[in-house]
Write a structure and sequence with these properties.
Elements lengths: L2 H25 L10 H10 L5 E8 L13 E4 L2 E2 L3 E10 L4 E12 L4 E7 L12 E6 L6 E5 L1 H7 L3 E8 L3 E8 L2 E9 L16
Antiparallel strand pairs: 1-2, 1-11, 2-4, 3-4, 4-5, 5-6, 6-7, 7-8, 8-9, 9-10, 10-11
Length: 207
């Protein structure tokens, strides 16, 4: 087994157990800065990673979800950054095909009073996927290391809060996942302790 997979497996399993026991304490930390709102501090923490790519893996998925196997390498690339918007391609290794799925890009936009998360999905030829640019705005105050984004449509459909939870601890980890009520339903973690030496190519539909 490739050493990258072993490293990723231990990293993600470790973070899963850490999340069960210590997530509440760690992710509620605030950075003291009276001149910035929590959403600005959170955006700044994401911006600190600009230009780098990091390895990660699947930490948690609901029963029956087959999007990921849990053994493939995942890469997040903090690729396009300006003062108000960040574009983070999410690369998924296709182990059986010796190829990569480069269809997804997470887009964070900073507005005067909150943040917005969108999902740019593309086909291999660069055209838009049938289901793309979904997402929502940050919900609640959030913290410097955690923000949640509400999916209005999914919440209204189920009557239960549905959306996304993002955590960023510079120098440690970046976490992306979906939540149902207050609980993770799907989650991937990336190791920020050491950036990849080789950056991935552009995601589909981007130059």
């Amino acid at each position: 087994m490739n050493s990258r997979y072993i490293f990723t497996l231990f990293f993600t399993v470790g973070w899963f157990f850490a999340a069960c026991g210590n997530s509440n304490n760690q992710t509620q930390e605030q950075v003291s800065d009276p001149e910035n709102e929590p959403f600005e501090l959170f955006f700044d923490a994401l911006t600190q990673q600009c230009g780098n790519a990091y390895p990660g893996g699947l930490t948690l998925e609901p029963p029956g979800d087959e999007m990921l196997t849990g053994t493939e390498l995942l890469i997040v690339h903090f690729r396009e950054c300006d003062e108000n918007q960040l574009k983070l391609p999410f690369h998924i290794e296709l182990e059986d095909e010796n190829d990569w799925d480069r269809s997804r890009t997470w887009i964070y936009t900073k507005h005067p009073n909150n943040l917005e998360l969108r999902h740019d999905h593309r086909m291999r030829d660069g055209s838009d996927d049938d289901f793309t640019m979904y997402g929502g705005f940050s919900y609640g105050e959030g913290t410097a290391v955690r923000h949640e984004f509400k999916s209005v449509e999914r919440t209204e459909e189920t009557g239960i809060f549905r959306g996304w939870r993002i955590e960023i601890v510079p120098g440690e980890r970046y976490t992306y996942g979906t939540i149902r009520d207050t609980t993770w339903s799907w989650r991937v973690d990336f190791d920020l302790t050491e950036a990849l030496e080789e950056l991935p190519p552009a995601p589909w539909g981007h130059e």
